[in-house]
Amino acid sequence: MLTPTEIAWFTLAALVLVLTPGPNMVYCVSRALCQGQAAGLISLGGVLLGFVVHLMAAALGLTALLIAVPFAFDTIRLAGAAYLLWLAWQAIKPNGRAPFEARLLPQDRPAKLFSMGFLTNVLNPKVAMFYLSFFPQFLHPDRGSVLLQSLELGAIQILVSGGINALLVLGAAGITAFLSRSRGWLLAQRYLMGSVLAALAVRIALSGRK
Question: What is the pLDDT of residues 80-95, one digit of tens each?
Fold first, then answer.
């Protein structure tokens, strides 16, 4: 139901957002650094299951809302733009915490690693905000089921997030070593992500309902 161009734009947006450090990335990378790659990947599995929970809740909620209150679309769109601006500030604000800093964590069993990854994501309000504020930018009620469109977007987002975070977990030690020698790269990454998020926010705020 989405055009190839829309899928490409959403994939790019999902890529930018997953590269913006948050609790999920911090937890998975921290596990990989202190307990090994396998622990990081198990934690990531729990995180991805958490995405499924958020996705289903958001898809069902948005479907019900847009059916009951059609004019709510523009309100949600503008809220999404504001949320992206907030993420941009989080990326560039002074003293922002880097996800590849080593942290001391206890050695946990696989079941606890998975459950902690799941809870880290399910209890993260940023994920719910992302789904509820960003999905409507790509939904088209006139094309059919909003629920199916939401699930399509969610599948793309979960694949992008899972793939990128898996690569970060597998390369965590090397990335940490590199950044410890070149802090300028980390600062450049933060400002690049912040600039792209701000540009997306402006584009969404200025675009009308299609």
Answer: 667 667 766 766 666 6
The pTM of the full predicted model, rounded to 2 decimals, is 0.71
Name the nearest CA neighbour of 98 among 13, 170, 33: 33
Start-to-end CA span in the chain (Å): 14
The contacts of residue 9 (CB under 8 Å, 6+ apart) are 138
What residues have CB less than 8 Å from 182, skipping those under 6 apart? none
pLDDT digits (tens, 9 = 90+) for 169-208: 898 877 766 665 666 666 666 676 667 667 766 766 675 5
183-206 helix and 72-92 helix, angle to the nearest 10 degrees: 160
Residue found by looking up tokens 């969404």 in the block: 204
Residue with tokens 């990947």: 41
Looking from the CA of 101 toward its CB, the CA atoms found within 13 Å total 8
Measured in whole angstroms, how far is the alpha carbon of residue 101 from the centre of its chain? 20
